[in-house]
Design goal:
Heat Shock Protein 90; 10 helices; binds adenosine-5'-diphosphate
């Protein structure tokens, strides 16, 4: 990356130096030729007016330099005088563009290859009062020699600019990449002292946010693993202890039955626990959305009521189902599980003689499901946390009633996967109501 940025910066520098020099040369050339044209015109006009002056007041010799050539022609273009060549050898100049123009309009200008000197030359011709033509000219080689003299200066300046650019490019890439490297070393370190380029701030913030999320996730996973091990350990210790007693013949016949019952209870608990853990990891990794279909929540609730009626009767709790048929988009097994966990909690954290009510209402833009109970309620300090994995307000009550501490975590997961939202109202001693709002299915 460093090399690439540096290469591109140097390329841009070289290109801009070359382009700048070319444009300077072009402008220079234009100004210079204009200058030559004006000089030739002025000289031609001055020389042209001399024929009216006192003879010898201005000598033609004053104007004759190596660079300047003066030619005098009569009205039909025959050469009467030439300052650099013997005029007798010169052909008729009447056809030359500058002479033609001068004969027609009074003056003419041309740039072309001189037949006499085989070099490019600038010509300016004016018509004299006697009808003849005075022409002054200058060779282009003189002009190009001026350009040639500028080339070393330009080349040195260009090389110096390119060299400077190479240095600056190196410095810029080093400082930019150096900053990114420093940033990479300090991911998650929100130290404001690390000099921040404002353009990189959103990038740094996103990386820091993701870094925090990764750390948080890792912490949650670590806690979860520790909790799982702990939760598995308790029933396994019981099973191992009782089976050891039976194995050593230390249990009477009556004890064996009691111990077998405990072993059975704890192994069932292990199965439920493992089932819940597997379910959560499935919900974490699986993308079930492809299998979603319109599911009638009321039908699901009816099944759920029939599955839990016996358990409710045991606790002297009644289950009521209110509302109407309503379709939501989701996975039927997931929705059953969600409702089962909610009603099951309503029964388990209730008082004898209490009730659990399921209500399904179809609103204009959403489907509303509520599960309310007349149970023990949840005090405010626990309300936020009961959806966390393994969080229980009263551990022994949860365990005695067959809870794993994972039911509401599974509910929350399913709600999120179904694009629904969840809210909780509860009053200790009076009861709890959990409301879930589903978006209406488009089917
Ligand atoms: P558990 O298997 O322990 O019931 P959950 O995740 O279903 O686990 O619930 C977490 C905790 O939230 C429970 O241990 C209980 O303390 C509390 N809780 C859940 N539902 C209710 C309810 N309807 N009434 C009172 N407390 C509840």
């Amino acid at each position: 990356m460093k090399k690439k940025i540096r290469k591109q910066l140097i390329l841009i520098a070289v290109l801009s130096v070359v382009l700048t020099m070319l444009s300077v040369l072009l402008v220079f050339y234009h100004v210079f030729t204009q200058q030559v044209k004006h000089e030739l015109r002025d000289t031609a006009h001055i020389l042209g007016t001399m024929e009216n002056r006192e003879p010898g007041s201005i000598s033609e010799q004053d104007y004759l330099t190596e660079e300047l050539r003066i030619t005098i022609l009569d009205e039909d273009g025959s050469v009467l005088y030439d300052s650099t060549t013997d005029y007798l050898y010169l052909a008729n100049h009447g056809g030359r563009p500058e002479v033609k123009d001068a004969l027609e309009t009074g003056e003419g200008y041309a740039v072309r290859r001189s037949d006499t000197f085989s070099e490019n030359a600038y010509y300016y011709a004016v018509k004299l009062n006697n009808g003849g033509i005075l022409r002054v000219s200058r060779q282009a080689s003189n002009i190009f020699s001026v350009f040639l003299s500028t080339i070393p200066v330009m080349a040195i300046t260009g090389a110096a600019v390119v060299f400077l650019c190479v240095l600056v490019a190196g410095f810029l890439t080093r400082s930019l990449i150096g900053y990114i490297e420093k940033m990479a070393e300090n991911v998650g370190n929100n130290d404001e002292n690390i000099h921040t380029y404002s353009e990189l701030k959103p990038f740094v913030e996103t990386i820091n946010r993701q870094h925090e999320a990764i750390i948080k996730n890792a912490r949650i996973r670590q806690e979860f693993t520790a909790n799982v091990s702990h939760e598995l350990k308790t029933p396994l210790t019981v099973i191992s202890g009782y089976s050891e007693l039976i194995e050593n013949g230390m249990a009477s016949d009556a004890d064996v039955v009691r111990f077998a019952k405990e072993i059975h209870k704890n192994s069932s608990r292990l199965l439920v626990l493992i089932n819940d853990i597997l379910r959560l990891s499935e919900l974490d990794t699986e993308s079930l959305k492809a299998t979603y279909e319109p599911v009638d929540l009321y039908d699901v609730a009816k099944d759920c009521v029939s599955m839990l009626t016996l358990k409710a009767k045991d606790g002297n709790i009644s289950i009521l189902l209110k509302g109407q048929n309503a379709l939501v988009n989701g996975d039927r097994r997931m929705l059953e599980e969600m409702l089962y966990n909610l009603v099951d909690n309503g029964i388990r954290y209730n008082e004898p003689g209490g009730s659990v009510t399921i209500d399904i209402e179809e609103k204009k833009e959403e489907i509303l499901l509520s599960v309310s109970d007349t149970g023990i309620g949840i005090s405010p300090e626990h309300r936020e946390r009961i959806f966390e994995r393994f969080y229980r307000v009263d551990k022994s009550r949860s365990r005695e009633t067959g809870g794993t501490g994972l039911g509401l975590a599974i509910v929350k997961h399913i709600v999120e996967n179904t694009d629904a939202s969840l809210s909780l109202e509860s009053e200790p001693g009076k009861g709890t109501c959990i409301r879930i709002i589903f978006p209406k299915t488009t089917a």
